[in-house]
Amino acid sequence: MKKNRWSTLDLTMGSLFVALTAIGANITSIAPFLVIGGVPITLQTFFAILAGIVLGSRLGAFSMFVYMLLGLAGAPIFAQFKGGAGIIMAPTFGFIVSFIILAFVAGKIVETKRTFPRYIIASITGLIINYVIGTNWMYAAYQLWFEAPGDLSYQVVWGWMMVPLPKDIVLAVAAAVVGYNLEKGALSRSQFRRQNNAA
Can you tell me the distance from the alpha carbon of 167 to that of 88, in angstroms, rounded to the nearest whole number? Predict the structure, then answer.
């Protein structure tokens, strides 16, 4: 029987991942050495994947939904401390939307069988969802409502995404390792996991 209501502990854990994702979006303000070649390394996708594999599909997706809503309401929790409803029109907003979906899918993959290969599959699948939704949103934005470079094409937009891809793959695998180790360590003995397993 599925649990229909979240406990205070569930909501606390969800809030923790909202905060971690906000920190991850602006980690370079805390650790400026994470700007490599002028490209900031953000950890939003890392924490979105981790939210799914740690919190589960429903709570993980909900935490990312709350993160998105808070940012749209004006809280400066998106990358470069941005916030507000105007972000919806930004070419990169699709990546934020993808956090909700990838957290849900990643959580679903590991919920039935918490083995290390499942964590790797969940994390890489989450990254693929992030890239597919985010990149297609970006292309649509440039085609429909945002000023696009003159030589822009679908291939060019995907070419841009090849630059951060190696570090994102590394971070996705790191999320799998962290999530699996948490599960086999403190998380498996925690009240959070016991109450969810009993539900």
Answer: 26
